[in-house]
Write a structure and sequence with these properties.
The chain contains 9 helices and 14 strands. By secondary structure, the chain is of the alpha/beta class. A 7-stranded mixed beta sheet has the order 2-10-9-8-5-3-4, with helices on both faces. Strand 3, helix 4 and strand 4 form a beta-alpha-beta unit. Bound molecules: 4'-deoxy-4'-aminopyridoxal-5'-phosphate (PMP). The site of 4'-deoxy-4'-aminopyridoxal-5'-phosphate has 11 residues, from helix 3.
Length: 368
């Protein structure tokens, strides 16, 4: 691959070069089919193999127990904000608990309130969403329909530490969009996790959900077919035409994770090493760079920080972009800078950014 930039976008985000190369090589003929995955029937045996391998890879990587189902859907994680309460809150007699950890959790609450009673069990607004609670200590009522958490807040750059999941209580439902497959998970502590694929798992247009089978029994009758998890579970996500190419890209990404990287423990180690390269620059900058996140809850995926002024932030982003580091501007709702360094961002890219941050700070010091 030539002329690649370092792409720090929060999503869609950079993909492993290996994945792009295989997709390119198979673009005119997938596996002897004489056609690309873009063109083939989702009922073909070729596509059956693709969706089958995608599921197997996910099950292997996350050690998904046999009584969990893997669903491939569309509508983004945003549609899950609605489908979760439609399927598990509607018509019930109890409330659902929500941890309001940041911008994405807030959006999930808006949709859940349309379906039933929502109990906000923790709200980080007062801290500007810079910190997170100990979920195990929140005292969530056991009869709640479920407890919804967001494992990584993409905009604020805060992430629950490993092992934060309670081992008892109502079903834990997690929006894992921006840290899915970045580290191992104790899957059996979750009722369900869901994630848009376009950050760590593939390309846009695909949402993955992994849910415990017995939850399907709680779904009220009368939902529209495409909004009912049972439709996807019963037909192995082939009730209608799925986002076939995105499932193919996810299959390639998960194959890369299993066989090139060697699994999620190794991926986690690499991700922590990359994140530390940037957090140490922030910590050693005497306040020139100010991290947004409480150090105990720093995200390994989205690193967020401020500079002494908005002018400097703009200069930083512009100058970085001029030398091939793109998308470092923070989300418009919070400002500052953000570097998204998902699984596929090579450590070389992070080293280049680290050196740029150090140089930028030195230039500022010597010119003022
Ligand atoms: N949740 C989180 C944590 C996200 O980061 C995003 C996307 N940035 C979403 C939900 C919404 O995802 P989508 O755009 O796939 O609907």
């Amino acid at each position: 691959m030539t002329e690649r930039v370092w792409n720090f976008s929060a999503g869609p985000a950079t993909l492993p070069s290996r994945v792009l190369e295989v997709a390119r090589d198979e673009m005119s003929s997938f596996n002897g089919a004489g056609m690309s995955v873009l063109e083939m029937s989702h009922r073909s045996t070729w596509f059956e193999d693709i969706i089958g391998e995608a599921e197997t890879n996910l099950r292997e990587l996350l050690a998904v127990p046999a009584d969990y189902r893997v669903l491939f859907m569309q509508g983004g994680a945003s549609l899950q904000f609605s489908m979760v309460p439609m399927n598990f809150l509607r018509g019930g007699s109890t409330a659902a608990g929500y941890v309001v950890s940041g911008s994405w959790a807030k959006k999930a609450v808006v949709e859940a309130k349309r379906e039933g009673e929502v109990r906000v069990v923790w709200d980080g607004a007062d801290s500007g969403f810079s910190t997170l609670p100990a979920v195990r200590e929140l005292g969530v009522e056991a009869d709640s329909a479920y407890l919804h958490v967001t494992s990584n807040e993409t905009i604020q750059g805060i992430e629950f530490p490993p092992g934060f999941e309670p081992d008892a209580g109502p079903p834990l439902i997690c929006d894992a969009s921006s840290d899915f497959l970045s580290r191992p998970l104790p899957m059996s502590r979750y009722g369900m996790i869901y994630a848009g694929a376009q950050k760590n798992a593939g390309s846009a247009g695909l949402t993955v959900a992994i849910l415990r089978e017995d939850l399907l029994e709680r779904i009220p009758d009368g939902l529209h077919s495409m909004l009912d998890y049972r439709t996807f579970a019963d037909d192995r996500s082939l009730y209608n035409t799925p986002p076939a190419f995105s499932i193919y890209v996810l299959m390639l990404v998960t194959r890369w994770l299993r066989f090139d990287v060697g699994g999620l423990e190794e991926m986690q180690a690499r991700n922590l090493e990359k994140a530390a390269l940037l957090y140490t620059v922030i910590d050693e900058s005497d306040g020139f760079y100010r991290g947004h996140a409480d150090p105990a809850f720093r995200s390994a995926m989205n690193i967020t920080w401020r500079l002494p002024s908005e002018d400097l932030e703009k200069r930083f982003v512009d100058e970085a972009s001029a030398v091939g580091m793109l998308e470092l501007k923070g989300h418009r709702s919070v400002g500052g800078c953000r570097a998204s360094i998902y699984n596929a961002m090579p450590i070389e890219g992070v080293r280049v950014l680290r050196a740029f941050m150090q140089d930028f700070m030195q230039d500022f010091a010597s010119n003022s």
